[in-house]
Design brief:
CATH superfamily of the largest domain: ANL, N-terminal domain
Strand order of the largest sheet: 6-3-7-8-9-10-11-15-14-13-12
Number of domains: 2
Protein name: GH3 auxin-responsive promoter family protein
Domain GH3 middle: 297-363
Distance between the termini: 56 Å
CATH architecture of the largest domain: 3-Layer(aba) Sandwich
Largest sheet: 11 strands, mixed
Helix content: 25-40%
Domain GH3 C-terminal: 391-496
Shape: globular
InterPro entries: GH3, GH3_C, GH3_M
Length: 511
Amino acid sequence: MAILGNIIKGAIHLKETFSTESDHWKEQQEVLRSILNIAKNTDFGQYYNFETILNSEDFPRKFAEKIPYFDYNKINDEWWHKLHDGHENVTWPGRPSYFALSSGTTGKSSKRIPVTDDMIESIRAAGLKQVFALSNFDLPADFFEKEIMMLGSSTNLEERNEFMEGEISGISAGNIPFWFRSYYKPGEEIAKIEDWDKRVERIAERAADWDIGALSGIPSWIELMLQKVIEYHSLKNIHEIWPNLMVYTSGGVAFGPYEKSFNALMGHPITVIDTYLASEGFIACQTRPETKAMQLITDNGIYFEFVPFKPEYIREDGSLTPNAPAKALNEVELDQDYVLVISTVSGAWRYLIGDTIRFTNLEKAEIQITGRTKFFLNTVGSQLSVNKMDDAIRHLEDAYSTKIPEYTICAKRCDDGEFYHCWYLGSDMENPDCASLSNSLDEFLMEANKNYKVARSKSLKGVKVKVVSTDCFYDWNGKNKKKGGQVKMERVMNEEKFADWEKFIQSKISN
């Protein structure tokens, strides 16, 4: 009998039973008041006179009026660079304990995002919120006695200018609570291995020693790890070695494109729970099984604002125009894409993390990630967001009975001088009919997106599809950044980067 599991499950259920429905806008006002008050004597708080904002009758509106938008380059050039020179109290009291390295999907070099002790505590609290929400998923008691495989970046952080640096998943794993360490796999020794391939090899070697009940990580790298374990032990599916695997908490990117290939590695269905952990903080998590949406964490050190995702408010580099209107949580609407703007206990202020979201439930503050500001393909007026591209990929998977976990796209001027959407699909399909795939993709997008249909009648001349091995995408990431961790594939490339991509693919084919 799962005695410990029953105790843990009972405690979680009791906690949820006595929890009341949140007033998310009230919580957001309290968070904003708190972070403004804490940071009012920092250099940033003095410069923008936080005291005046706090004394305003409508302080959320005053905050939006007085503080400009910041992307990483702007806040780093004006403020955060001082931290590396030894300054304190710059945008948050004291000095950060860590810097989270994030090249994301579009950056040429790593961003260095401050991670304070307050943010570490915020991430821990958000993780506990998700644990308590498990009571909604009707999991058996013995699940709470199983081990959890967290596949992130290395926990072996680097020292630079007296700071420790690494990806947020590595920083978080290095700060897990002591009571959780007996559940955590692959364990501290393996987690410190910097080379991703070697780390996964050690996981495969040790896999039979563990009773894994849950997985956590970015879908593409979790899939590769599972494939390695299956191959190493000559298995048909992962449940032959981890029979009690019941839950996967996905994060970093939309799970949809990976769903079919992920399920092919399972012996039976498992519960998939979405999370939204960025280098800047723990944004949201799924709290109930009847929806795939995630609930914003509104009471835990992050204040959210939302800018309508419209071409007139977005610059070519993905930043916002100064006059772009920001909506507070009590002003947002359903069925509208928004650029997410955050202010946090790490001293990020009105900061663009580059994601776009859409609300699915206003009362519960539930959202879905719809894409990236830089992955909005509008070169020829097609106005394609990542969620529309993901829908098109799922259509192809169903229509051709195949799996396409990876893809990238570019609006490219081809040899005839006309613009085409050039797609590379990562798939193991044999002898693909690229002309048929192109027509099917084109027809789906015209039916699903009126702006795309208009563009097709004017400057966009069609779709060109090429199919390559999924390994090409992983090798591209390994060549340009590194494997594993928070690394994600670019869904949309500009023509310059796409030319490098095509040279890379050609070299793979030639070899």
